[in-house]
Design brief:
The complex is a heterodimer.
Chain A (H helix, E strand, L loop, with lengths): L1 H10 L4 H23 L6 H33 L4 H6 L4 H37 L11 H14 L1 H13 L3 H17 L22 H28 L4
Helix pairs in contact in A: 1-5, 2-3, 2-5, 3-5, 3-7, 3-8, 5-6, 5-9, 6-9, 7-8, 7-9
Chain B lengths: L4 E10 L2 E7 L2 E2 L4 E5 L6 H8 L7 E6 L2 E2 L4 H6 L1 E4 L11 H12 L4 H9 L15 H13 L5 E5 L7 H18 L2 E6 L2 H7 L2 E6 L2 E7 H7 L3 E6 L2 H10 L5 E3 L2 E5 L6 H14 L4 E6 L4 H9 L1 H8 L1
Parallel strand pairs in B: 4-9, 4-10, 7-8, 8-9
Antiparallel strand pairs in B: 1-2, 1-3, 1-5, 5-6, 10-11, 12-14, 12-15, 13-14
Helix pairs in contact in B: 4-5, 11-12
Classes of the chains: A mainly alpha, B alpha/beta.
Chain lengths: ~240, ~300
């Protein structure tokens, strides 16, 4: 399994997916940078970093997962590499499981990078404009735990997006699912039912009500793992014509 | 000793369309087996079933005695494949692409250098595949198929995109493989010349059915002998041959006269020459006609031709 996983990771070298992994969190960091510079008075570290994490979980994470899974899948769909991969003496489920693990690893890296880049951009902005330098110090452990919960709650969304991207050789179904999911997630932000909606589960980790956090985490993480297993089994069994 | 590849009653339907129909083929060990058929005849579908990429509706495929459906992983270890779609990652270099497959096969890194050397791609191995020509991708695909030195190579249209020198090199290389490495090559193509110049054995598939299979030299020998002649008056010569019960056909290259079964070609040529000269017809050239794979192919693969022969 480690060999297949290492192959999946090496494929990302110089790829658009790798570029996306850096570009998406950078956009939020850039946005926060200008917000800080526009400010008149100092805010707290937690305010800036929480704001960045909210923007990530609310909008950028669902959109990034949509694009990332489509790009990762297209690495095989584009040059029609499935025939070669599936003809090798490797159990097919491992190929798809490695792809899923690789995507989750990239999402974890992007989520961490979002936090790191935001910290860097706030630091640079406060050097350029010392009057807005953030006060206090960030509660790193709390922020890392929040990020971990966001990724865990995003598992169901990742599983759905990855299945759609791998199942269909065209970009269109995966993008339609991702854009549609993100759209409904954004327009129905305050709806209580959003806790059951895979694209809104990550942002529910910021909710004040404990039941929302627990429900979204349990569904997103638990059902996500089940969905991932089903997706891997289905993709490994089906023929790629 | 089991054949390198053997299929029994291999059948595959796509909805109502029968792509491969009860196809039983045998690829002997260390043969270069040319799998011939027009586009859409069922070649690629058959190869995909041999590689375990798609499941047969009926029938079974064996590779080195291993049932592909029951023992896919073990069978896949015996095969290296070059498929029509190369499936290279354009963002990676040629060597990096090979390294991915080598990792999945558990082959040592030295294998990458070895196969690059074989296909003469060492100098370009550090370049990104995005910048490769079709011919270079084809050679890299062949290198990838040879990683781990599998005993059977399945090559789908391997000369696609190669320049004339590259095609000649590829043919030479494929012909030499069984002797050099003991490998068996199953080579699919719709190009008669390519198969004729490369293969020791041939299988012809038409509308999903295997309509002919055998050793190429024997198949050629089994064809009825023909004499080709050029004369000063082909029309009169044809009439004269008809008088000898030989239905000669006028072609651009001269007259072609099929012999009766059992006729000795040299004796027949001498007799015809004598008859034509005695009739005052100048004979510029006369001799047995070289039989080509095209002759064999036309007899078995073209329905219109078959109808003509029946008529």
């Amino acid at each position: 399994m480690l060999a297949v996983l290492s192959v999946e990771i090496r494929k990302l070298n110089r790829s658009l997916a790798a570029l996306l992994a850096v570009a998406a969190p950078s956009l939020i960091a850039l946005f926060v940078f200008f917000i800080v510079l526009r400010g008149q008075r100092a805010g707290s570290w937690d305010m800036f970093l929480q704001g960045s994490i909210t923007a990530w979980a609310f909008f950028m994470l669902p959109m990034s997962v949509t694009a990332l899974t489509a790009l990762v899948a297209h690495m095989e769909h584009g040059p029609r590499a499935w025939d070669h991969l599936r003809s090798l003496p490797v159990p097919r489920w491992r190929i798809y499981a490695a792809k899923a693990l690789c995507v989750i690893a990239v999402v974890i890296a992007m989520t961490g990078l979002n936090l790191a880049l935001t910290w860097a951009s706030v630091s640079v902005a406060s050097v350029l404009k010392p009057t807005v330098a953030p006060t206090g110090s960030p509660d790193v452990a709390k922020l890392l735990l929040l990020n971990a919960k966001i990724v865990a709650a995003a598992t169901l969304m990742i599983a759905i997006q990855l299945w759609a991207a791998l199942r269909f050789s065209s970009f269109v179904p995966a993008l339609a699912v991702g854009i549609g999911g993100t759209f409904f997630s954004v327009v129905a932000t305050s709806a209580k039912e959003g806790v059951f909606f895979p694209w809104q589960m990550p942002v529910n980790m910021m909710a004040k009500e404990a039941w929302r956090v627990e429900t979204a985490l349990a569904l997103g993480g638990g059902l996500g793992l089940v969905m991932l297993a089903l997706a891997v089994a289905h993709l490994a069994r089906r023929e790629v014509l | 000793m089991p054949a390198a590849i053997e299929t029994e009653g291999l059948t595959r339907r796509f909805g109502s369309r029968l792509a491969v129909d009860d196809l039983s083929m045998t690829v002997p060990k260390q043969a270069v087996y040319g799998f011939l058929g027009r586009n859409g005849a069922g070649k690629t579908t058959t190869l995909k079933m041999v590689l375990g990429l798609i499941r047969p509706t009926d029938g079974v495929a064996h590779v080195c005695g291993l049932n592909v459906a029951r023992d896919r992983i073990a069978a896949a270890r015996k095969i290296g494949a070059l498929l029509e779609a190369h499936g290279f990652y354009a963002n990676l270099t040629g060597a990096e692409n090979l390294a991915l497959t080598a990792t999945l096969l558990g082959a040592p890194r030295t294998e990458i250098d070895r196969v690059l050397e074989v296909v003469e791609m060492r100098a370009d191995a550090g370049r990104k595949v995005a910048g490769y020509s079709l011919g270079m991708r084809q050679r890299l695909g062949l290198a990838r198929a040879m990683l781990g030195a599998p005993p059977v190579l399945v090559l789908d249209e391997p000369t696609n995109g190669l320049d004339p020198d590259g095609i000649a090199d590829m043919r030479r290389f494929l012909r030499s493989l069984p002797e050099r490495t003991g490998a068996t090559v199953l080579l699919s193509s719709h190009l008669l010349g390519e198969i004729e110049q490369t293969a020791t054995h041939v299988g012809v598939v038409n509308d999903g059915k295997l309509v002919l299979e055998g050793e190429l030299a024997r198949l050629k020998a089994d064809l009825a002998q023909e004499i080709v002649l050029r004369t000063g008056d082909d029309a009169r010569a044809a009439e004269l041959l008809a008088g000898h019960d030989l239905a000669a056909v006028r072609t651009e290259t001269g007259l072609i006269a099929p012999l009766r079964p059992g006729d000795d070609v040299d004796q027949a040529a001498a007799a015809l020459n004598r008859a034509l000269v005695q009739a005052g017809i100048a004979v510029f050239a006369i001799g047995p006609r070289d039989r080509s794979l095209e002759d064999i192919y036309r007899r078995v693969a073209t329905p219109a031709q078959r109808q003509l022969e029946v008529a």
